[in-house]
Fold each of these.
Amino acid sequence: MADAAGKGIRSQNLALLLRLVCDSSPVTRVELAKLAGLTKVTVTNLMAELIDNGLVHDLGVTQHGGPGRPASRVAPDPLGPVGIGFQVEVDHVAGCVVDLSGRIRRRELRRMDTRSLSPAEVVRGARPVLRRLFDHATTSGQLVAGIGVALPALFGRDRDGQLLVRSVPGLGWQDVDVRTLVAGELEAIGALGIDVRLGGSVPFAADVECRGSAEDLIYVGGEAEVGAALVTGGVPHAGAVGAFGHVPVHPRRGRCPCGRSGCLELSAGRAAMASAVGEPETALPRLLSGKEPFAERLHDGDRRAATATTLAARALADALAAPVAMLGPATVVLGGRLAALGDALREPLAGRLAEQHPGPRVRIGQGRPDTALQGAAWSVLAEIVDDPLGWLDRTS
Ligand SMILES: [Zn+2]
């Protein structure tokens, strides 16, 4: 019993310290002891264990400006395990390699008209992307801890609680076993026994944008489709896998590609906003250069873009009214493609929301184009950070 309890405490302390190293590096052992509320001796011992197992790296004594003796600093091991993120969009497949410091080590992309292909053809077409990502990790001597697949999908769960793709409305996918398809491709490139996990693009992006936030948030983002996730204690709610873009807000508006009428997508989705200004719907410019063609027109003073943005803001505020009334979030964060629209979207949205509620703050997130990919890769690494001892036991 005593051994089990001791192992439990050691396991918790290892997780706490690894989390602190990931969040605060470079950091000294004395600083870690203060942050963790542990003795310096305990930190030194546990840090030795994390260093021996290739999760933490001792940087040695670096430039020292403070009082007292110079102390060596530690950081996540740059040669430690990595996570791979992978996503399918209407015009490409893309992936990245992320290390324990949260840094993207490698990006890969292949242009592909995924809407004209079957799910199996898309995943097969992604083989060169997956191969290059794995080659990068293995030639750097790094262990791939798993692959996170980000999809703008509606999910169900199987008997074991694992996510199943029910549909990806933007790609026309229905009941696709994406996990088996990806695992098959990994096997084909010789990457055996790799953990494949699925998740919604929006919850993955929300995790990157809102990690560590203490207040309750509603994150609204997405690329092709609008999505939303409730974030409490800095963690996106596990149930946040629904189709926020298909909430009905336009009683007299026409049909949505999903088959229903009046969806939020019809005013705030990328296809609707692009067509309002005569632009083709595409994801590539934003991923490659961070530029969103619709947002460029908006910021150049295009009146059609301004009108479409105001209409989108009203529809978003109406769709948010019910969750805001029920959950009372402190802040609504606009991320993904919506962040690129800036105050032109935020101000009318906040104004309309305030008409109905004393209301949350509305702030614009970073909205980087690869946050979903980064979140997908980090979902794999989070398992190591949450339980390093368990992970070491499984992989040793
Ligand atoms: Zn719809």
Amino acid sequence: MSEAGSGRITKVVIVGGGTAGWMTAAALSRLVAGGVSVTLVESEEIGTVGVGEATIPSLLDFNRMLGIDEDAFVRATSATFKLGIEFRDWTRLGDAYLHPFGTHGRDVEGVSFHQLWLRQRASGAGDPGSIGDYCLSAVAARRGRFNRPSANPQSVLSTLSYAFHFDAALYAAFLRNLAEQDGVVRVEGRVVAVDKDPDAGSITAVQLADGRSIDGELFIDCSGFRSLLLGDALRVPFTSWQHWLPCDRAWAVPSARQGPLTPYTRATADTAGWRWRIPLQHRVGNGYVYSSAHIDDDAARDALLAGLEGTALGEPRQLRFVAGRRDRLWEKNCIAIGLSGGFLEPLESTSIHLIQSGITRLMTLFPDTGFSTVETAEYNRVMLREYEQVRDFIILHYHATQRSDSPFWEHCRTMALPESLQSKLELWSGKARVFREQGELFTPDSWIAVLLGQGIDPQSFDPLAAVLPAGETARFLAHVRDMIDKTAAAMPTHEQFIAQHCAAPMRQSA
Ligand SMILES: Cc1cc2nc3c(=O)[nH]c(=O)nc-3n(C[C@H](O)[C@H](O)[C@H](O)COP(=O)(O)OP(=O)(O)OC[C@H]3O[C@@H](n4cnc5c(N)ncnc54)[C@H](O)[C@@H]3O)c2cc1C
């Protein structure tokens, strides 16, 4: 039953045709068959942010929801498979660890696997190796191998989890094609003004530079950092998190492919931030995310170019941003999805996930013209909490460092933390406890990989880790490690898998 005076939404307007706009359009295109018009306005003149190439496994759910054939998607976007992220030089210069997707080992009688591993390590009776040795995605990544997981839960291969690296422009084009096939109407034009209802203050139409006006009942702001609707028109304030995440600029440049196709993203810590390396089928995406308070633009650009493995395919492009988010992501009849709502730097490749999260929650709470304030508040509550949870996970990487070789790392190592992260760290520091909050994106396995990878050793472990006699624990760990190693060794290489299933057509590399 609707609230008094409210009815069905019949006109949805999406402003912006970047990754956020076309993901939203593809998801909402299913409404068209039910008589809802979905219009997307974008401006070629303005263009898109054009980066955003690494993803996390939740994207598979989005693809499934849209009925996308995965091999066709990989070919169309020149994608590769991603089993995790390798972090180099984050704890100390020369150190490296992997944050893999998937799980570590197998829990025993309700005791988390990492507790058994910690107990074995503490016993001094034989080196259990690194926690990554017990995660199939990590071992396969190190060996440069890939296969899709098995659907059989008894198989070790069922524990593998993966995501993609793809070309952001090709991804938007792929989704545009899907959305247009399903009846989404694309309008080329530049929005120059936003009309609002004088009483309610909600948005009624957007005005284009050529004089056209596009009216609607529900407006999705996918206008990128400009935040034309939520920020400019509805004046929802932005809260900056720059004191925790000081990086505010990036240089990005593609380079020629060289060497084997690694099935993981690389994030290398640098003097005033970090550099990404994202392998695609036709090129490698590279960037340096840095704090402009700690390094000047030219020095950051030089560091990026000096660190490339292959020849640069063009001039580096600069991007500017501030970490943070709008205080509400849904206001009146407008929802901001993508960069218009907030930005967290790409260290854990979470922006596209947050777009997806915004879309699925919008679908769950799809409004009528009454725009229930209770539902809007619920949307804001869960989305804002998710932003904070992701923020905390990213801050952890910066803070948990022993580096003091530059003012940037000195700042990160000594900064005060958000309370939510501080209490997570305290729980970990005692008996290595990790709990997943409701709706939290990152699993305990992710936290464990990064906490141990960043060198935060707990003082002790769960007393229940003595669930197995010591000798049996050692045999169990050795067995798990061996099974994982053999399974990874039997997989095809990443290149072989792609060549066999989903090689992209030859493309211009830039
Ligand atoms: C350096 C960097 C690296 C990143 N790497 C990753 C990554 O690896 N993984 C990840 O998940 N995310 C990453 N992101 C984030 C990711 O790029 C974005 O989340 C994603 O591209 C979505 O952007 P968007 O669609 O919100 O905005 P945009 O791509 O900026 O699109 C905005 C759209 O709005 C339109 N528009 C703007 N103003 C007007 C107007 N007046 N009239 C009409 N149209 C208008 C534009 O034309 C465009 O179509 C990265 C971001 C940055 C800055």
